[in-house]
Specification:
eight-stranded mixed beta sheet, four-stranded antiparallel beta sheet
């Protein structure tokens, strides 16, 4: 049936008028529209029906026709620029952390990330532990504010020394522990000393707390106590963040003698040491004792996370502190997040007290050794111009120094085009990096052959990079001997 053009003309006129009205404004009555436009009541009725079908008007019998609420797509664009002024100049930069947590695109081999590949996660054992925990009625009640007593005792026993359950607070993973510690132990604007390079998540958390990270150089054995003492003296800092065991990204482990020197330096400076013990269960053999077990003066705030060795979603960690610092940390955690869900705590405890925990640790240790050797061997074969900082005694990362003339950012982008994801060295430095690096991770890939293929793809990307003129390369910062 042919459409009446008079209906279309009237609908177009009314459409324009409705667009000028506010939502809820009443249109003229049908009688008024008939008189105004000299058309029949049928034409008016059909034109209004057309606008109603478009969602422009709403007809209410006995009341009239009204302009409808504007669809979201037709609403005037919101002006959010005022927020820039209201928020001020404080920025929370998540780029480094987000890059490490991002899932690789389909077909891309991940040589990034610090969590176990799904095939290595003890998912069935954790599910069984969760089931056992869920069947206990107390699991659904409020937990003690510092954490379930059995879990706190477990953390204290694992650390040893004179650490007691009363020194332990259960927090929602290592990253949350770091954020709590940075906010509680230092005031915005103050410096915090960090190893360089260091974990980007710690840098992000420190900056989010308003602190100023200050770099302290490391060598193959970890942080240098002499330079740490100098940094405390120059900056007046009262806080030092470090990873003494299997340091991320370099893999360095601080010898016991240096651990004692670090504690002495910190105590002389009247400063706290935040010990990030993220890799406690990722070592391939014995390691020196944690700093907290060597500390008799409350210098160390210790972070002991379960996430790396179990599952990304088992976000449970023990935060150990003594004295007024412990009270400050408890108060800060309480007002920020109350407590960790009891179901998660009880699940962790069920798993840790089961034979599955010991079996899982043994399996992961064997897997780590095979993967480390596979990745290091692939780098030696396919990237002979690159150099490992060291071959770590465990952990999940290799820190790779690139030739001085390498464009690090361009290489990372080219690698992604070739189907492999690697981590740029720049994000691990609190200030200017001393030269191009990348961090390669072996735990997120499916299996050792995939690691070899990932390095082969990286080598193809490296071969495509244009050479930087010698003079330009030599004008840049040198690569440290450490």
């Amino acid at each position: 049936m042919k459409k009446d053009s008079s209906i279309d003309r009237l609908a177009a006129i009314l459409r324009a008028e409705v667009d000028r009205l506010r939502p809820g404004d009443r249109l003229p009555s049908s009688r008024e529209l008939v008189a105004r436009f000299g058309v029949s009541p049928v034409t008016v009725s059909r034109a209004l029906a057309q606008l109603a079908a478009e969602g422009r008007v709403v007809t209410r019998p006995g009341s009239g026709t009204f302009a409808a609420p504007r669809p979201a797509g037709r609403a005037e664009a919101a002006d959010l620029s005022w927020q820039t002024v209201a928020l001020g100049d404080r920025v929370i930069d998540d780029t480094g952390v987000a890059a490490l947590l991002a899932q690789p695109p389909e077909g891309v081999i991940p040589l990034v990330g610090g969590y176990l590949h799904p095939n290595l996660v003890p998912a069935r054992e954790l599910a069984a532990a969760a089931g056992r925990a869920a069947r206990r009625p107390e699991t659904w009640l409020m937990p003690p504010l510092s954490g379930v007593a059995g879990l706190r005792r477990w953390f204290a026993t694992e650390l040893g020394g004179d650490v007691t359950a009363s020194d332990v607070q259960v927090v929602a993973g290592g990253q949350a522990a770091l954020a709590h510690a940075f906010r509680a132990l230092a005031a915005p604007g103050q410096p915090v000393l960090v190893e360089t390079p260091t974990y980007p998540g710690a840098l992000a958390a420190a900056k989010a707390a308003g602190l100023r990270p200050v770099a302290v150089p490391i060598d193959a054995d970890g942080v240098r106590p002499d330079l740490l003492a100098e940094a405390f003296a120059v900056t007046g800092a009262r806080l030092f963040y470090c990873q003494p065991t299997l340091h991320n990204p370099t893999g360095a482990t601080l010898p016991r003698e240096r651990r004692e020197q670090v504690l002495a330096v910190a105590r002389a400076a009247g400063a706290f040491v935040i010990e990030d013990d993220y890799a406690r269960y990722l070592a391939l053999g014995p390691t020196p004792p944690p700093l907290v077990t060597l500390d008799t003066h409350g210098v160390v705030v210790h972070v002991h996370s379960l996430t790396k060795i179990t599952s990304p979603s088992l976000r449970v960690a023990g935060l150990v502190a003594r004295g007024p610092a412990a009270h400050r940390l408890r108060a800060a955690r309480l007002v920020e997040s109350f407590f960790v869900a009891r179901q998660l705590q009880e699940t962790a405890l069920e798993f840790l007290e089961s034979p599955a925990w010991r079996r899982h640790r043994a399996a992961i240790t064997a897997e780590l050794a095979a993967r480390r050797d596979a990745l290091a061997g692939a780098v030696a074969r396919h990237l002979p111009d690159a150099q490992l900082h060291l071959l770590p005694h465990g952990g999940v990362h290799l820190w790779v120094r690139l030739p001085r003339e390498t464009d690090e950012a361009a290489l990372v982008e080219a690698a992604l085009r070739h189907g492999v994801l690697v981590s740029p060295g720049r994000i691990y430095y609190p200030s200017e990096p001393p030269g191009p690096h990348i961090r390669l991770t072996h735990i997120a890939a499916a299996h050792p052959p995939e690691l070899a293929e990932g390095v082969r793809r990286l080598a193809a990307a490296f071969a495509e990079q244009p050479a930087v003129p010698r003079r330009e390369a030599e004008s840049g910062a040198g690569v440290p001997s450490a």
